[in-house]
Design a protein that fits this description.
- This protein is mainly alpha-helical.
- It has seven helices and four strands.
- The protein has helices spanning about 10-15, 40-45, 50-75, 90-95, 100-125, 140-150, 165-170, and strands at about 30-35, 80, 130-135, 160.
- It has a two-stranded parallel ribbon. Strands 3-4 form a two-stranded parallel ribbon.
- About 30% of the residues are buried.
Length: about 170
């Protein structure tokens, strides 16, 4: 997400909207899955610098949020945005990298998901016609519920998660 011109999400969205016969629109009845960020987190983990890692994550999430808003502006209504996994737990970090890089990658994944939740909450607030949210886990769903409550939209938008943690079942 942070390297424009290198096959990133922005390029994918631009290419999709420019597809032959597409008319520059995102069909409203399609499901758009925006599952991205792992490579950004990986790069952050290998940076060996927490400040640099945070900057990389912030830039990535900002680019992702911008691209999601572009899709919405062009007609998309159904967007699934899963959280990133713990990149610090992949073999590249657990077996082939110093422990400090694995720890930074794990911290970067957590920070990425926190920033992504915040960005998605802002997107929710900016798009009043949103009808539903499918959260990739209940923690993300609880974040969406909180954002919807803050925006006064909790009665307008359905939130679905699937972990069935007690806090989510009560929400």
């Amino acid at each position: 997400a942070f390297q424009p011109g290198v096959g990133d999400l922005t390029d994918q969205v631009t290419g999709f909207l420019a597809r032959p016969g597409g008319g520059g629109v995102a069909p409203s009845d399609a499901l758009y899955v925006v599952w991205i960020g792992g490579n950004d987190i990986r790069t952050a983990g290998h940076s060996n610098d927490a400040s640099m890692a945070n900057t990389l994550v912030i830039n990535a999430v900002n680019a992702i949020a911008t691209d999601i808003q572009v899709l919405i502006n062009k007609g998309a209504h159904n967007i699934l945005v899963p959280n990133a996994g713990d990149v610090g737990a992949i073999p590249e970090f657990t077996k082939e990298s110093p422990a400090s890089q694995a720890q930074l990658a794990t911290q970067s994944a957590i920070f990425f998901n926190q920033r992504l939740d915040l960005a998605l909450a802002n997107i929710l607030a900016a798009n009043p016609d949103l009808a539903g949210i499918f959260a990739s886990n209940d923690q993300m769903g609880l974040g969406a519920v909180q954002a919807l409550k803050s925006a006064g939209k909790i009665d307008q938008v359905k939130v679905v998660g699937y972990d069935a943690i007690p806090q989510a079942l009560q929400a």
